[in-house]
Amino acid sequence: MGDHEKLLAQISESSDAEAVNKIREAALEQLRSAVPGLFASIPELPPAERKARGQLANDVKRQNEELLAACKAWFESAELRAERSGAGFDPTIPGTRPERGSLHPLTRVTRELEDLFTSMGYVVLDGPEVELDWYNFEALNIPRDHPARDMQDTFRCDPQGNVVLRTHTSPGQVRAMERMKPPFRAIVPGKVFRQETTDASHEHTFHQMEGLVVGRDLSVGHLIGTMKTLLRGVFGKELEVRLRPGYFPFVEPGFELDARCPFCTQGCSVCKRSTWVELLPCGMVHPNVLKSGGIDPEVWSGFAFGLGLSRLVMLRYGIDDVRHLLSGDLRFLEQFA
Ligand code: DAH
Fold first, then answer.
1. If you placed Cys at 1, which of 5, 25, 65, 276 could pair as Cys (CB 3.0 to 4.6 Å)?
2. How many CB atoms are closer than 10 A to CB 3?
3. Ligand 1 atom, smallest distance to 167 CA
């Protein structure tokens, strides 16, 4: 075995990084100094000797390059061996867990209410967030020049004002009437939009859930009974309710339904010391609205309610600022994990 082969064997059998490194440095040194010298000397030799010197120079260069490659391979496999041996691996260090999200409080309450209402025979419907003026206002007995439009400052999507971002989930009432044959019961949860100056209790985007029941001979008694069941489902107890007159063009009569404060008996900050919390507007569906939905008001009657989902979620979890809900702030959201 020549010197070169010996060195190569030495490298592959070595278990000593230091020794391999020495060989590597020697080879590098040769390539840097001796090899260029050999090549440079060729033109100074008599022609007969040049060929042999050229071969020698090439051999030395190639051999040193081989040595370098072998050293490199040795270091690479040494690294692999070290990794595979498990030295330096601590099995007690906890792994990296995948981050897990959780349901948004709005989603939770929506799903709970959907369960509650489907158990009472309601279907859950969806409506478009970009809505026609017809469904959002006109069909709900709010014509173009009606002052009730001022109560809902509206984002319009086209210069003619035929397309709007829905300002409430009530357009779902007429869409439900178009889709289903009476008698039926439906809820329409979703996002609504209003041009609001935002503060702790106002947000341009918030959530509502519309409810609509169409049947024969429905009365305010059915409405109150349904609302009491809803409250029992949400707050887990029987709550006294009261109705105050409320004006909404699409119901007649229309009401504001208040419930006894679920958090106190003497008055607290939630009920502003009154022991009553304003919970939801509701009423008996106006005959014009039934007509808009293609339903004969002489035969059928209905009641409807407009639950402020965002407000309900705030009440339920004691959230003091509506703007937290859609902030996407993890410090807020992680509290519900
Ligand atoms: N859509 C109304 C609003 O957002 C709320 C409302 C009032 C809904 C009375 C109803 C209702 O279904 O009967 O201001």
1. 5
2. 8
3. 4
Distance CA 136, CA 172 (A): 9
Rounded distance from Cα 247 to ligand 1 centre (Å): 9
Say which residue the tokens 């702790």 belong to.
200
Q: What residue owns the CA closest to ligand 1's atom 6? A: 306
* Pair of tokens at residue 120: 């009472």
Give residue 286's pLDDT. 98
Residue 1: pLDDT band (50, 70, 90) is low
pLDDT digit string, tens, across residues 28-49: 999 998 888 889 999 999 999 9
Please tell me the total number of residues recorded for the chain in this structure: 337
In the reported structure, the alpha carbon of residue 185 is separated from the centroid of ligand 1 by a whole-number distance in angstroms of: 16
Tell which one of 250, 285, 286 to mutate to probe ligand 1, the residue whose CB is within 8 A of the most ligand atoms: 250
The predicted-structure confidence for 89-146, as pLDDT tens digits, reads as follows: 888 988 888 988 899 999 999 999 999 999 999 999 999 999 999 999 999 999 998 8
| Ligand 1 mean position, distance from CA 197 (Å) | 21
Query: Which residue has the CA at smallest separation from atom 5 of ligand 1?
Result: 306
| Residue 98: CA count within 13 A, CB half-sphere | 3
Q: What's the 161 CA to ligand 1 centre distance in angstroms?
A: 21
Q: Is the dihedral of CA 173, 175, 180, 181 positive or negative?
A: positive
Full DSSP string of 209-259: EEEEEEESS--HHHHHHHHHHHHHHHHSS---EEEEE---TTEEEEEEEEE
Q: Cα(216) to centroid of ligand 1, in Å?
A: 22
Share of the chain above pLDDT 70, in %: 100
CA distance linking residue 332 with residue 212, whole number of Å: 33
Quick count: other Cβ atoms within 10 Å of Cβ 26?
13
